[in-house]
Amino acid sequence: MIRSVLVLVFFFVVSAAVGMLVATDDEYFDWAVGGGLFALAVAGEGLRIWLRRGRPKTGAKKDSTQSSGI
Highest taxon of the source (predicted)? Predict the structure, then answer.
């Protein structure tokens, strides 16, 4: 959860900076570019969480009664 928040904060700052850099003289911030980049980051992070939760957990513990095979 903390990783997702840090990733979204990072991409919020990056998209805000890009939105300001590509803005024209008439406006201070390009909402389409900045908002679009942040929307992509939110969608990607949501997809990452969805895929991670959908996968079965691997690495089940071995039963202590099983032989190592040696």
Answer: Bacteria
Domain boundaries along the sequence of the chain = 1-54
Task: Report pLDDT digits (tens) over 27-57.
Answer: 889 999 999 999 999 999 999 999 988 777 6
Helix axes 31-54, 2-21, angle to 10 degrees: 160
**Amino acid sitting at position 14:** V
Q: Is the pTM of this model over 0.90?
A: no
Long-range contacts of 39-44 (CB under 8 A, 24+ apart): 41/7, 41/8, 41/11, 41/12, 41/15, 42/8
